[in-house]
């Protein structure tokens, strides 16, 4: 299957199901720049699965197979995945899962127990120098984060901005937050759009980073945000009906 470019938002919301049960569990939100091997690491922490046996498949809302996430080095966003699809975990060693289900007892390894596992994703990555344990990967990650910080440092809170994401129309807004976001890599710009084109009210996972009306807020990478003199457009209709 060929490569695909990320042309939508920086996150994707996926329903989760496992090889123990085809029923979808709670919806989880993942950044599109996460690599497949790091995605497996996150899933392993709460399922007790195994990196070397875990396979991931994505199905659409009609339960039709969309793709298989077979390349550990690829980013999640390089696959044709949209929010609302189902991420199915196939793993013969999969234990009990963490996702919300009335009939399933929750299972989650502690950090200490996970560190002791010799067959975990972390152990596999360290042994084979993959993902975050790969020196070249770390250098690229550090360079990318340094470039993001340079761009973010030029931004000013409450300045007007234009957001340009590939294959979408430009959006105008105001910069409300600059910096790190918990559990996400790199630097982010919190923007309040002029229209309800966002995802939230400036909060993420219960933490409020800035204030704005619901559905007007978004977190974006500095690369897609341009600060400048962009007057707010008048969207009101003046014609009488």
List keywords for this structure.
241 residues; alpha+beta; Ubiquitin-like (UB roll); SH3 type barrels; 2 domains; five-stranded mixed β-sheet; five-stranded antiparallel β-sheet; 19% helix; 24% strand; globular; disordered C terminus
How would you classify the helix and strand content by structural class? alpha+beta
Distance between the termini: 52 Å
Average pLDDT over all residues? 77
pLDDT below 50 for ≥5 consecutive residues: which ranges? 1-8, 95-107, 237-241
Sheet-strand content, in percent, reads 15-25%
Order of helices and strands: EEHEEEHHHEEEEEEE
CATH H-level homologous superfamily name of the largest domain: Phosphatidylinositol 3-kinase Catalytic Subunit, Chain A, domain 1
Instruction: Please give the largest β-sheet.
Output: 5 strands, mixed
Q: What's the CATH C level of the largest domain?
A: Alpha Beta
CATH architecture of the largest domain: Roll
User: How many structural domains does the protein architecture include?
Assistant: 2
Radius of gyration: 20 Å
How many extended strands? 12
Estimated helix fraction = 10-25%
Strand order of the largest sheet: 2-1-5-3-4
Our count of helices gives 4
Give me the CATH fold name of the largest domain.
Ubiquitin-like (UB roll)
